[in-house]
Specification:
Number of domains: 1
Strand content: 25-35%
Largest sheet: 11 strands, antiparallel
Helix content: 10-25%
Oligomer: single chain
Radius of gyration: 18 Å
Order of helices and strands: EEHEEEEEEEEHHE
Number of helices: 3
Distance between the termini: 18 Å
Strand order of the largest sheet: 6-5-4-3-2-1-10-9-8-7-11
Shape: globular
Length: about 260
């Protein structure tokens, strides 16, 4: 049983994203950015003049109806799997919409029951085509959780293999590792690490100077890396060979 730790929200994490591919070419890149850690029942709200720099819009996540909340959309995803948190706390690590633009390649949700026990982690994945998929994984434990790859996240990976996911709740430090394992190939490893900062207006404005246009730069970086991989003749899995990726959850097990 995993009990909620006293980690206050909202908070900011200055992050470093890394991605390592060892075959058929060695390719490594990293991106410095930042993410918000929020409680879905107490979303931060900046002064009106500062909202263009951080707008939390439920339309950027999952499917739903006009006017619903991100919490309602998470509850709907869980309900599709027969899961009811009974109103328990849900926290999330994400990038908000900035200057009208949103891009969240990975959003993590930590879902607790009414007793504060961490029951499930959701990993919502978006690709650069605006498509998304959600994986429901067990809470953090001594070993990573294993989940089958079901989503066309990249033309260079297709939909085969499985992920090992280690996603403990953020504390003073953020430390997430996700690796993709495929037959007869070395793992592709991605990490998301960061240091906690207070979510003050001054900090938000400082990040606009040091890490401007964070979602735009994340999307641009992924597109540039894709061009580099194509130039290096990394094999591409055609879209027709992959599954249609809308709103499916994947079965999981501990590894």
């Amino acid at each position: 049983m995993t009990i909620v730790e006293p980690t206050s929200t909202p908070a900011l994490y200055r992050t470093r994203v890394t991605h390592l591919r060892r075959a058929p070419v060695h390719h490594y890149f990293e991106l410095n950015s930042y993410s918000w850690y929020v409680d879905l029942d107490a979303m931060p709200r900046l002064p009106r003049w500062a909202r263009p720099f951080a707008r939390f819009d439920a339309r950027d996540h999952f499917d739903g109806v006009a006017g619903d909340t991100l919490r309602a959309r998470v509850d709907s995803v869980l309900a599709d799997r027969g899961i009811d948190l009974r109103g328990g706390r849900v926290t999330a690590l994400l990038q908000p919409r900035m200057l009208g633009y949103s891009f969240n390649p990975l959003t993590l949700y930590w879902c607790h029951d009414v007793h504060g026990v961490l029951r499930h982690v959701l990993a919502e994945v978006h690709n650069t085509d605006g498509e998304w998929h959600v994986y429901v994984i067990p809470p953090d434990g001594p070993n990573p959780a294993m989940v089958r790859n079901r989503f066309y996240a990249s033309p260079f990976t297709g939909v085969d293999g499985y992920y090992l996911v280690r996603a403990p709740r953020p504390g003073a430090e953020l430390d997430v590792t996700i690796s993709l394992h495929r037959d007869n190939q070395p793992a592709i490893v991605g990490t998301l690490r960061g240091t906690r900062r207070p979510a003050t207006l001054a900090q938000v404005l400082r990040l606009q100077l040091t890490k401007p246009f964070a979602p735009q730069m994340s999307a641009l970086s992924l597109r540039v890396q894709g061009l580099i991989l194509r130039a290096r003749r990394v094999p591409v899995t055609p879209r027709a060979a992959a599954e249609t990726p809308q709103a499916r959850t994947a079965s999981v097990a501990h590894s």
